[in-house]
Amino acid sequence: MEGHEQLRKSRVIKVNSEQRWDFLLAQAGNQGCPVVVHFTTAWCIPSVAMKPLFEDLAQGYPNVVFLSVDVDEVKEVASKMEVKAMPTFVLMREGAQVDKLVGANPAQIKKLIGEFVSS
């Protein structure tokens, strides 16, 4: 049917509380899964523009946990992770930050995640 795209289930988990953040990081750590976090906000156009790319990356890396944190909704997590600008992408392993990218740079985030997953 023309005009109807096939819908796919998102692999990006929206974090809606500090408790959920702690739970998801602990779960990923227990399973040995790396984590990629997109710190975003609804009013930041570059953050919103990166969302489809982040969804695509999540589809391409099934063994990585992809999280989305709206800094206006979960300020405690943004503060804990020292997020000061959006979008910010944080790469984590076993609950610890391994790398961080600030800004909407599609080529750089693809490269960073590719290197992170293969390390």
Which helices and strands occur, and which strands form pairs?
Elements (H helix, E strand, L loop, with lengths): L11 E4 L2 H14 L3 E6 L4 H16 L4 E6 L4 H6 L7 E6 L2 E7 L3 H13 L1
Parallel strand pairs: 1-3, 2-3
Antiparallel strand pairs: 2-4, 4-5
Rounded radius of gyration (Å): 14 Å
**Proportion of beta-strand residues:** 15-25%
Number of helices: 4
Please list the strands of the largest sheet in the order they lie side by side.
1-3-2-4-5
Oligomer: single chain
Q: Which secondary-structure class do the elements indicate?
A: alpha/beta
Total number of beta strands:
5
Task: Summarize this structure as a short list of keywords or feature phrases.
119 residues, alpha/beta, Glutaredoxin, five-stranded mixed β-sheet, 4 helices, 41% helix, globular, Thioredoxin_H-type-like, Thioredoxin-like_sf
